[in-house]
Amino acid sequence: MSQRESEARDQSIVRKTVNDLRLDAGGNPERYFIPAYQRGYRWAPLQVGQLLEDILEFTKRVDPQQDEYYCLQPLVLKRRAEGGFEVVDGQQRLTTLLLVLRYFNKRMKEEFRLPLFKVDYETRPGLLDFLDDPTDDRAGQNIDFFHLKQAIDAIETWFSNKQSIVEKIKDALLNETEVIWYEVSETENPVDVFTRLNVGKIPLTNDELIRALFLKRRRGDKSEAESQQLRIAYEWDYFEKSLQADAFWYFVTNRRGERQNRIGILFETLADAEGIPSEFRSDPYSVFFVFSRKLSTPGATREAEWLKIKELFQLLQEWFSDRVLFHMVGYLLNEGMSISEVHNLYDGCLKSAFERRLRERIFYMATRKEWKDGSSEQEIRERVAEKLEEVDYDSRLRVMSMLLLFNLATLLQDSRSNLRFQFDSYKRENWNIEHIRSVVTDKPGVPDRRSKWLEPCLGYFETTGTEPELRSRIRAFLDLPFKERARSETFDPLYDAVLTAFNESADEVADNSIANLALLDEHTNKSYGNAVFAIKRQRILELDRAGIYVPLCTRNVFLKCYSTNIDNLMFWSKEDRENYLTAITDTLADFFSRRAGGAA
Known about the structure:
By secondary structure, this protein is α/β, with parallel strands linked by helices. The chain is 57% helix and 7% strand. It is built from 28 helices and 9 strands.
């Protein structure tokens, strides 16, 4: 850097108090412009509270008479020809400061309120109106308003028990809190500065940096450039909002916990499909570097690259909307196949051909055998039956995969149905495989577990008005002291009597085959432990009546829909298990046979 450049830079860096940020040289409210290439407001209540706590701690310094200041992170700006400043970096802090100052003003009569600076978001023209009336309904209009409303609520909550020191904190914020004010030169490109400042910072993600690339201003027809910029910004928000719907998000990915910036999956998918250069693969910003290189290639245009993103999003929406593709693509993605791999199967073919390819891939995932053209329905059924015999409770992931496919294939059996599998519930919660008829040899050992096992049995007998003598024995056991309930000679005879009442036996060999397994969420599974079939059935039906998601096939099992003999709905017999296994085999064989016949 030359001496002239160094001196110019030194002159552009100054310290300013928050009070200095409010007004311009003419005494009018200063205007700060947040360009479209930046992300929206994303500070969480925790970050807002931390800022206020830091200022509060500063007010408790040992010697208030000392010339001390609490310094915030730098504010990087570029002066605009039309007046005001473009915020290159620091807009999260700047917006939060505005929210706090507006809180102070709200407490004052109008004539005593301070004139405040204004923040304009290029893609959020209604921001100031929203801040004047930040209702919950309006907060739901877009993701930025949602986070702003959360911050406003966090500020009010934080001050709720500090009313006696509000003025002290206000004075510290206005007059003793500073920012490092850094103005970039007129010749510097703000997008390039923004990128240099933020690459490597944890808060910014690949897609937020990519946003800067796509919304970067360009030379040429100003009106055309602005029109394209706003269109991309609008479509960006639409894609993000669509992916915020959990039903859509958990259809396309297995990633849990991501609440912001879900649009990144589109960029990751395209980068993966086109190949990430080896020099970028280990870098956390590899996807950003891929798009940065693509857009800097001679002849490349933002319009063409953005069109690829748009077409991918529209294709995912098309798969999501189509009930057949929703279940087949959803299964493959759940099993670890990437979107780009599914896209390669699609390759622009007709829907019927795409469905056949999907079934072939699903067949391989389910049976670990390549599809053979010309296979008869009987050959397909034999292969499915062979695979079902191989899996059991110990091969948990393979059983879950087969049971998931059984549920999806069942849903697709009738084209008139509009039921869908809830991938969002399945992926957000911890799901497991559950014994339909419990492993009765797993007898509860400690007194509390024994009581917990007996209580729902007592409730069932009371509800049905059956087993009066056994009810009296259970009540007597539950009233015993801890030490007495711990005695095996006290509990074991009662345990055997209860199992006999439910037509189960402690001597029965545990059945860990898929014929005795069903999908169930972990919370429900643990809630009834090693209960007998009748208790499990009662619990499943209660969940179903309450509108809590229970997979269709799990519900059917406990309703005994697969059983040819339903003389007693409260027991799960060997015959029931055989009927259930036949239903799984027939359903999966029918699903794959549609490929053999070329049906859609």
